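New to this. Help decode the following:
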Amino acid sequence: RLIADVDAKIGVVNSIILDGLAGIGESVTLITDQMQQLVESTVPLAREVSEARLEFEKFASSIKGAEELRQGIIGIGESYGFTATQAMEAGSKMAQLSGIFGEQQAIAAATEAGIMFGMIGNMETEDAMKRIIQLHQQTMTLYGGISQKQFMMMSAEQQANIIRQESARLLNELNTIENRSAATMSQVTHVMNQFASSAQLAGDSISYMAAMSATLIEAGEEQGKAGRALRMMYARLGANTGNNAEILAEFGIATKDASGNLRTMEDIMRDITRSTIMNSEADQLRVAQAIAGNDHYVRALKLMNNHGR
C-alpha cells in the first residue's frame, strides 16, 4: 500500500512537472511568434528607409550640408504626414537637379513645393515631383522671371525664398483653374508638359496655358491629344506652315509683332474671336485648319468657340 501510495504521488508530481514544462514551451512559442512579428513589421520598413537614404545620398552627396538637408526634408515630410521614406524619395528627385535649384535651402523649398503640389492636386508624391520639375524645366517658372545664371548668383536664402514664392504662385494659379473647371490639376499639368516650352517662347502665361488645357479637357479631349494639338499650333504659327499668317492677315489678324516675334496664343485667339471669322463656319474651319493642320483643326475650333470659357 505504501509502495502504491508513493507511485501515485510520483505520478502526480510527474504530471505537474510535465504540465509546467508544457506551459513554459507554449510561453516560449508565444514570445518567439511575437519576436517574429516584430521582425516582420520592422525589418521591411528599415530596409525601405535604408534604400531611400542610399538613393538620397547618391544624388545629394555633392551638395554642401547633405545630412542637414536630409534631416530637414524628413522634417518637412513629417509636417505633411509623410514617412521618412516618402520624404527622402521626394528629396532625391530635387537633389538630382541641384544644378538647377541651387543650394541646400533651395532644394528643401523645392521639395516642399512638390509635396504640396501632390497633396493639392491629389497626386502621388513621385508623380507630382516629376510634373513640377518638367514644368519648371520648360518654363523656368520657379525662377520668378530671372535667368538661371542670375538665380545661381544669389545666396542660398534668396534662392529658397524665390522658390517658395513662385511655387506658391504656381500652385495657386493651377488650383484656381482646377476649382473653376471640370479638369483636375493632374490632367492640366499632363497637357501643359507637352507644349509649355513652345508657349513660354511665345510669351504666354502659365495661367493661360492651364486655361487652354482645361478648356480642351472640358470639351472632351484626351490629355495626350490636347497637348500634341497645342504644340502643333505653336509650331505651325511660328513657322507659318500652310501660309496661316497670310490667311489670318486677310481678317486683319497678325501672327507676329512689329519686331517679328510670334504673338502670344492668347492675343491671337482673342483677335480671332472678335473678328468676322466667328460669323462664318466656313471661315472658322479655314482658319482652324491653317492654325492646327488637318489632324488637330477640331481642337483649334474648340479653343476658338470656348475662348470666353
Observations:
- The radius of gyration is 32 Å.
- Residues 2-60 form the longest helix (59 residues).
